[in-house]
Specification:
Blueprint (H helix, E strand, L loop, with lengths): L1 H13 L10 E2 L8 E3 L1 H9 L3 H12 L5 E7 L3 E6 L1 H13 L13 E5 L14 H16 L3 E5 L7 H13 L22 H17 L1 H16 L2 H24 L17 H10 L3 E4 L2 E4 L13 E4 L7 H15 L4 E7 L3 H13 L8 E7 L2 E2 L16 H19 L4 H21 L7 E2 L2 H4 L7 H20 L15 H10 L2 H10 L3 H21 L8 H25 L8
Length: 584
């Protein structure tokens, strides 16, 4: 688009008009033309001239350019544009030779820290964790592809009363463990006194007891205090909880192709809180209100009430806001990022608005540091309510993944001559694609309905449909090689029919799409592009004889186009966080 607009600006200038009038955009009437320019309409008043007259003059000048196949002035003053097939083929050849397909590398790459995942230790991942993981992983990959340095942090919930509850319940069940002997000075066991399965039963049991028994909750609060004060046995037991939990979390995240660079948690900044709070008080930012310590973050321009940011409760305890502020302090000290992006449920928007304002007001971040919040909606069942299991409980993430893969396996065996181990391997790859594409194809802030039957379909706007298109290309290229063709010797040529040109035009939009997806934090733009590209490729396939084409140069040009299309499709699904099998 930059090249096309640059050419048209030069033409406007040559015709005696302001060059900025020559902005070219995609046509809103693709049945009439490929691109359009409305500059003559904008320039009519300034030049006191009919827009149709300006458009006609510019159209005449356009005949001198090699870029345009046709530029037509139409009433009341639009320019309808079709690009030259030779120019388009040349552009795609350059694009194919570029490792990033024409996407400009940043002159100054940004350092971006992404906070996503947000899992709690000692608890199994459930479907409420899926969107943060999938969206965050995709955004991390998009930013890296765009040339930026990205650090992904899971930010574990590994501190506070929940840890005290687990320790209390472990002591209830195994009171003779050495961790509870405060006079013990030896080495603690390397093996944890519980498995992940036991740990996942311990926390819910402790949570229920603390709500029903005031004495039990008091003991849990005392154990939390001992942990935070650094009692050796409690810290050792807590480390076991972390190790066992992390191993299980990594297994679940690995199954989703989600990886974190940092496995930090709330505990990492516990020691930073006292100094941070003291500074806020000394510098006059924090003051006491109804017993609590708060910082005002409301601004004169606010159109809604923004409550003060609570730093400490009346009993001196810290809150999530305190921990998030201390985490910002640590991140600025250790990594000094240009930008920090948080991915959580959109209902936490006010929380992060308060945290961001407090951090800026108190100088925890530099004025140049960009703080961004990506709030996502919920994954709902067909009844429009948050997705549940058949018995009404919250579904575990690993069960959702397993059920999706099982449904995919059933469809693969039903529709294809594939079975056994190979079918399971394909179902594993395609099932993850179905799950991730279903989530990412929706705008993050919107709720969506989880429909396993639709998401695992090989037709429509689904992950399996996109993968099937890639596999179709692979199959054609394999047959081409079997016929004696060499991919290294093919080269892109001008389009031989309208379907081929439409595919080439869409491929040329790749870099603009990827740039927009990065700047707008919008993986759904990649999904929309991938789906359109798959549809356009399939239309080209059905409209064109490829392998049976008798003209060797035409065939080589079409094969080269398929190679570029496969590369672009696989690049796109790579930043979405899944891959394609060799066959389906």
């Amino acid at each position: 688009m930059d090249i096309l607009s640059g050419e048209m600006r030069g033409t406007f200038e040559a015709a005696g008009y302001e060059p900025q009038l020559g902005k070219v955009m995609l046509s809103n009437r693709p049945d009439l033309c490929e691109f359009q320019c409305n500059g003559a309409m904008a320039g009519a008043k300034r030049y006191r001239k009919a827009p149709a007259a300006i458009a006609s003059e510019v159209a005449q000048k356009c005949r001198e350019s090699r870029i345009w196949e046709e530029v037509e002035a139409v009433a009341p003053g639009f320019l309808n544009i079709k690009v030259s097939e030779d120019f388009l083929a040349a552009y795609l050849r350059e694009m194919g030779a570029d490792p990033h397909f024409g996407l400009d590398r940043p002159t100054r790459p940004r350092k971006v820290l992404m906070d996503y995942g947000g899992a709690n230790v000692a608890k199994p991942l459930h479907i409420g964790h899926i969107r943060s993981a999938i969206i965050g992983e995709s955004l991390k990959r998009i930013f890296r592809y765009a040339g930026h340095e990205v650090i992904g942090d899971i930010h574990l919930g590994d501190w506070g009363l929940q840890m005290g509850l687990v320790i209390t319940e472990v002591r209830e069940r195994q009171p003779d463990l050495v961790y509870f002997d405060e006079e013990y000075t030896g080495e603690y066991p390397k093996e944890a006194p519980f498995t992940i399965e036991e740990l996942e039963r311990i926390y819910p049991a402790a949570s229920v007891k603390s709500k029903e028994d005031a004495n039990y909750k008091a003991r849990a609060m005392e154990d939390t205090f001992k942990l935070q004060q650094g009692v050796r046995g409690y810290r050792a037991l807590w480390r076991h909880i972390l190790e066992v939990s992390k191993e299980d979390l990594k297994r679940n995240y690995d199954s989703l192709n989600v990886e974190f660079d940092l496995w930090k948690g709330e505990s990492d900044v516990h020691e930073l809180i006292p100094a941070m709070v003291s500074r806020m008080k000394e510098e006059g930012y924090a003051y006491e209100s109804h017993g609590a310590l708060v910082v005002d973050v409301a601004e004169a321009s606010d159109t809604r009430e923004i409550p003060p940011c609570i730093i400490l409760k009346s009993d001196g305890a810290s809150l999530y806001q305190t921990t998030d502020l201390a985490t910002l302090t640590e991140r600025m000290s250790l990594y000094c990022p240009d930008e920090i992006i948080y991915m959580t449920d959109k209902r936490q928007e006010l929380h992060f608005e308060q945290v961001f304002r407090c951090a800026r007001k108190t100088g925890l971040v530099t004025p140049q540091t960009k703080l961004r919040f990506v709030g996502f909606g919920t994954m709902n069942g067909r009844d429009g309510k948050p997705f549940k299991t058949r018995d009404g409980g919250v579904m575990r993430l690993e069960n959702l993944i397993r059920e999706t893969k099982e449904e995919m396996y059933r469809k693969i065996c039903e529709n294809r001559a594939i079975s056994g181990e190979e079918a399971w391997e394909i179902a594993d790859t395609v099932g993850i694609a179905a799950l991730k594409y279903a989530d990412l194809s929706n705008q993050a802030s919107k709720d969506y309905v989880f429909d396993i039957e639709r998401f695992t379909s090989f037709e429509g706007d689904t992950g399996p449909y996109v993968l099937y298109t890639i596999v179709r290309i692979k199959s054609i290229l394999t047959r081409f090689r079997e016929q004696g063709g060499e991919l290294a010797k093919v080269g892109l040529r001008p389009a031989g029919n309208p379907a081929q040109k439409q595919l080439m035009l869409l491929l040329a939009r790749f870099s603009a799409m990827m740039e927009a997806a990065c700047e707008e934090l919008a993986p759904h733009k990649v999904c929309a592009y991938v789906y359109e590209l798959a549809n356009t490729l399939n239309h080209f396939y059905h409209e064109t004889k490829i392998l049976s084409e008798e003209d060797p140069e035409k065939k080589a040009g079409m094969i080269a186009l398929l190679v570029l299309t496969q590369d672009i499709l696989e690049t796109c699904i790579g930043v979405l966080g899944f891959s394609a099998p060799e066959r389906m």
